[in-house]
Design goal:
Elements: E1 5-6, H1 17-23, H2 40-60, E2 67-70, H3 73-86, E3 99-102, H4 108-119, E4 123-126, H5 137-145, E5 152-154, H6 168-177, E6 182-185, E7 204-208, E8 219-223, H7 249-287, E9 292-293, E10 304-308, H8 314-324, E11 326-327, E12 329-330, E13 333-335, E14 338-340, H9 343-347, H10 352-355, E15 358-362, H11 372-395
Parallel strand pairs: 1-11, 3-4, 3-5, 5-6, 6-7
Antiparallel strand pairs: 2-8, 7-8, 9-10, 10-15, 12-15, 13-14
């Protein structure tokens, strides 16, 4: 078998050597203190956490005081959506006064939080998207003009399945003009597309460490004004009470280092990933003439390629690709034991049979241009094999 190729960086990335080196002292006997303790050990840990907070803020164009560390992107998304709804509770502790506007192509962390808010009485509006997954701005304007004005608008910056880049600056400006807070899940945007939070108005931004060469289990919700949100966890006074609990010091240190490196290297790496993505896309379309590439009519993140081959299914394709040494992922989610078409592609109007055949290739630190021919060859051979197997089953 040829050397293995990892093209699933949108799922997770390997921890960078520089990040591991920064974390190691805080996993040993010398720098293990609780950052809430007042003695020397605690003060050293607190200083390190605040340094990492400043690193993350600087990488995003935010202020250190705005960075609230969480256990990852899912918690941060839940804190933004449910926290905004809970902040609007009425005297009977119902969420009936809350109205959350989002899109059907969001990450499940946002959609599940939205459904939980609905279950507690909140109203939810999902804005339609076009065939490339871009939010309908006219529908947003309608939602902003409603009598039941939104409590929060949440639209992700870069879609995790297709790579569609939303016009977040324009969405944020329209929300601000109506006095509505705007949240964006920027987990897939951080380190991939240009991000400067000073360029537009925002209320909350979600980021995560393990998508940029940092450790798993740590992320952040960057919050412009903590008063907009109600905390989901109850305990001590850490992080102004918005997210109490003893901080994950080693993870936060790693996040800070990864964030600083990602910001410094973004432009060069994005260009390299985009070149590989375009080369792979062109070669696949040439080898598999009826292949369909998703989201090509919109701006896309440079590291994500989503493609479907008619007459196949993603589960079989991914299994056979893995056997050839290529690790990719699917546009489908396994729900109640049955593989169903991606909710993202379905919202984009992609036919169910085509959505069920989607494969996502995502580039990152382990990617190299010389891998492209091997991936193209593997994909073309696997598509042909899966089609033959499906035809044989249909005849039997």
């Amino acid at each position: 078998m040829a050397s293995r190729i990892y093209l699933d960086h949108a799922a997770t990335t390997p921890v960078r050597a520089e990040v591991r080196e920064a974390m190691l002292p805080f996993l040993g006997d010398d720098a293990f203190g609780n950052p809430s303790s007042s003695h020397n050990f605690g003060r050293a840990a607190r200083a390190a956490v605040e340094h990492a907070r400043a690193q993350v803020a600087r990488a995003l164009g935010a202020e250190p005081s705005q960075v609230c560390f969480t256990s990852g992107g899912t918690e941060a998304d839940n804190l933004a959506v449910l926290g905004a709804a809970l902040a609007r509770r009425n005297d009977r502790h119902s969420l009936a006064a809350a109205h959350i506007v989002s899109s059907p192509t969001e990450h499940k962390a946002v959609l599940a939080a939205l459904h939980e808010a609905e279950a507690q009485g909140a109203r939810a509006t999902l804005l339609p998207v076009d065939r490339d997954g871009v939010v309908d701005l006219a529908a947003l304007d309608d939602a902003l003009e409603e009598h039941h004005r939104p409590t929060l608008v949440s639209v992700m910056w870069v879609n995790n399945e297709v790579g569609t880049v939303q016009p977040v600056a324009e969405i944020a400006r329209r929300c601000a003009a109506s006095g509505v807070p705007f949240h964006t899940d920027a987990v897939q945007a951080f380190g991939k597309v240009a991000m400067d939070l000073k360029a537009f108005p925002w209320a909350a931004v979600t980021v995560s460490a393990h998508k940029i060469g940092g450790p798993k289990g740590v992320g952040a919700l960057v919050v412009s004004d903590p008063q907009l949100l109600h905390g989901l966890i109850h305990g001590g006074t850490q992080q102004s009470g918005l997210r109490p609990g003893t901080e994950n010091v080693p993870g936060i240190i790693g996040f800070g280092e990864a964030a600083e490196l990602a910001a410094q290297e973004r432009a060069a790496k994005a260009a390299a990933w985009g070149a590989m993505r375009d080369a792979l896309q062109q070669a696949i379309v040439e080898r598999v003439s009826d292949a369909v590439v998703h989201g090509t009519g919109a701006a896309r993140s440079p590291n994500i390629l989503s493609v479907s081959a008619p007459g196949t299914d993603s589960e079989s394709l991914l299994m056979h690709l893995d056997l050839t040494g290529v690790a990719a992922s699917s546009g489908s989610a396994c729900l109640t034991g049955a593989v169903e078409p991606s909710h993202v592609l379905s919202a984009m109007g992609v036919r169910p049979e085509l959505a069920a055949a989607a494969v996502r290739f995502s580039f990152g630190s382990l990617s190299a241009p010389e891998q492209v021919p091997q991936v193209v060859d593997a994909y073309a051979r696997v598509v042909a094999k899966v089609r033959q197997l499906r035809q044989a089953l249909a005849r039997s």
